[in-house]
Amino acid sequence: MGRQLKLNLFIYPGGHHEAAWRHPKSHTDRLLDIRFYQELAQRAEAAKLDAVFYADGPALESNVQFATRFRIEPFTWLSAISVATERIGLIGTASTTYLEPYNAARLFASLDHLSNGRAGWNIVTTGAERAAQNFGLDQHPPHAERYDRADDFVRVVGKLWDSWEDDAVVADAGTGVFADTSRIHPVEHEGRYFRVAGPLNTPRSPQGRPVYVQAGSSEDGKAFAAEHAEAVFTAHQSLGSAQEFYSDIKARAAAFGRDPGQLLVLPGISPYLGSTEAEAKALKQEFDELTQPEYGLGILRKLLGIDLDGVPLDGPFPPELLATAGQAGSRSQLVLDIIRRENLTVRQVLHRFAGARGHYVFAGTPMQVADEIQRWFEGGAADGFNIMPPWLPGGFDAFADEVVPILQSRGLFRTEYSGWTLREHFGLARPESQYSRGRHTPGQPGAVQRSQHSPGEPLLAANT
Amino acid sequence: MGRQLKLNLFIYPGGHHEAAWRHPKSHTDRLLDIRFYQELAQRAEAAKLDAVFYADGPALESNVQFATRFRIEPFTWLSAISVATERIGLIGTASTTYLEPYNAARLFASLDHLSNGRAGWNIVTTGAERAAQNFGLDQHPPHAERYDRADDFVRVVGKLWDSWEDDAVVADAGTGVFADTSRIHPVEHEGRYFRVAGPLNTPRSPQGRPVYVQAGSSEDGKAFAAEHAEAVFTAHQSLGSAQEFYSDIKARAAAFGRDPGQLLVLPGISPYLGSTEAEAKALKQEFDELTQPEYGLGILRKLLGIDLDGVPLDGPFPPELLATAGQAGSRSQLVLDIIRRENLTVRQVLHRFAGARGHYVFAGTPMQVADEIQRWFEGGAADGFNIMPPWLPGGFDAFADEVVPILQSRGLFRTEYSGWTLREHFGLARPESQYSRGRHTPGQPGAVQRSQHSPGEPLLAANT
């Protein structure tokens, strides 16, 4: 079997299109019903997807007057999904700026235990300026400082996850030794931002550590991803842009001495499907027509620092305003590039970003969507995709029912899971505890506590 | 129906007896298997208990060489339990010293959403000195400061949970209004410890706020409980001690202008059951004989600050050592009182605390256990109990199968749930948002978003 696509279901409450909740196809009444999300994850698992993914941020950000932009708390939600599924990965976002490492380490270790090794961590430094005021800060730390802190954070949680070696739990009722404390290590981390004594207060989890995911596209973000990430989520509107990112980030990983194959590049795609291209485009148009300009203008105001009140929506983007636009990050740059390159009206810009906030929106037949995915996958632009359904649940069902089988028939996507953990789905190595290095040779009996292929096996082998 | 007992299942990994994991009755191999805990909660629900409860602390505390004293992370675990149950309450411990209020508010709101209104918060200031070093502090903040901080913490999370009024979500597809932002309030909290702008980033949860539980028995702890708590967990070895605590805490609540009936007193009890009293006592003895003195001595050393190495286990507690014992909190005092009052050998002291760390251990027939519960309940000592099974799962099964039916037949305990939320089980009022006061009169349509008696009803009423 050749190289295989990785596909995640990226879940936003109400779907990714900002006005999806107004469309009769949406189940807006179920947006806080966990069973709705369990069913979505079960459908994604039936389609053999790699993972479901929740974005997150510790602030109420967008204007919820017009959109379903409240937040689903990822740890609780993914824990509830974990027990309704068996194979699919569970990727949650957690901020290195607004969480304590010890708490984050516990939450992910527990999610990995609950799910028998399916946890993934989308490492973010939090873009939302407003978060700072929810945590007693006068202002959001600057970009570079946030990444410095993220680096320290990743190092300390890595130590915590490694602090119990895989075979630390002995559970020998006869001798009365529950844990071999010579295999449980204080971490004594003294970093620039964090001082943590450790050890963690829970045994090492099935994957050792959750899969490290990252989504920054800034210089700092790319440097961080190249060093630490095992998967990168990224937004591109064209094959060329994605190819450039792909080869850049893989080269950066290699420069850190890493195997570039252990860093997956996963752009987002928000697909509208129809039996003809025209039908798919008409469907997209239906959603775009439900948008409320006031909402999109608010997002642009925040992203670019420009006020478009009173500017005619169906006229061009005023160049003099554009000249004053600021850049709050890589997403602002992406928006400015598109406005400048394509000479869009204000309304066209609003529609362009209404679908998936700058991610690639594609309307076509199932064959066309599959072709586009294959083109990026084989064209050095992607190792797979985050699927971003415009609305829920139908926007995902259409993809699962109509596009996935085409990808499977082409031999590009699995028809059955071959492993149990997210690391196995993604083809990533299981990290050995840094504290056991030199003690065990890899593969030596006892070096890992459980077979990765036997989720039913008790985690604690009671030697009674 | 007369006054009804409240009964919680207090879950410790491996059971409350420190050596339970060594006993063949225990399922030590399932201690990290979420299905094991889901099954326990389902059994507790079948017995119509009020809640399951997890203690917690952000440090590895006791010596895991000899006991199963790792920690279950409560939010993830309770979320996974919530979706395997329908009625039973879910009480998790969270520290006001080592969590950020915004993060804690999100986690509990989400658990309350997931469970349709069954979340409870055991508010702790964290007793574990070692926790400080996991959070960059040189030392654990002093007792009084921790309680000051807890007071500020409770005030700010209360504001966050109230920040979305119950009817803030409109979801009117026709007008395009998803939320009435005049009913979503910044909290602008400026306390002594916390500055939080708010609002929370999620709609108000079914119970409004989780049930507030507290377990401190110090002066600061009792003052805090009297002002804020809706249930108090407490440890007493005798009816007299419990009666004294009961009347004191109820009087303190009244002094705050509160209805003492809205503050439940729930002592712990760890029952050993047998068909005769002798059989029950022999069962307890079996567990006590599995204890390892080194473990218990370590606990005493930490609790009392005295080193008993080399002291004969079957001799008396050396008075000169006792004279130097320090008091690290209300639990130390309880231990010292018992040692002094009962003139125990060192081994007897170790056995006394091996069962439930100072909570009441009672061995007897099901009838005797029911009698004892009734005696405390009707004797002004308890509104109910935390049931602390010595081992799992059988230590709880015995109570559920043999004691609960007796309490039910005496009309002291429900035979069916009458409500759906933990507040309903406990007979506690649902707090109105502090931001809606004066706007709605209680009971006015629209003042609450969902009927508390209709968990199947969509939380977001889509007016499409």
Automatic annotation (TrEMBL), chains A, B:
Could you tell me which residues belong to the region Disordered?
Answer: 431-464
**Stored InterPro entries:** Diverse_substr_monoxygenases (IPR051260), Luciferase-like_dom (IPR011251), Luciferase-like_sf (IPR036661), NTA_MOA (IPR016215)
Q: Which Pfam families match?
A: Bac_luciferase (PF00296)
The positions making up the signal sequence are none
Domain Luciferase-like, residue spans: 26-381
Looking up CDD domains in the UniProt record yields: Nitrilotriacetate_monoxgenase
The chain's coiled-coil residues are: none
Q: State the family it belongs to.
A: Belongs to the NtaA/SnaA/DszA monooxygenase family.
Q: What is this protein called?
A: FMN-dependent oxidoreductase, nitrilotriacetate monooxygenase family
Q: Which GO terms describe its molecular function?
A: monooxygenase activity; oxidoreductase activity, acting on paired donors, with incorporation or reduction of molecular oxygen
Which keywords are on file for this protein? Flavoprotein, FMN, Monooxygenase, Oxidoreductase
**Is Translocase among the key words of this record?**
no
Positions that bind FMN: 56, 93, 143, 147, 217-218
**What is the scientific name of the source organism?**
Pseudarthrobacter equi
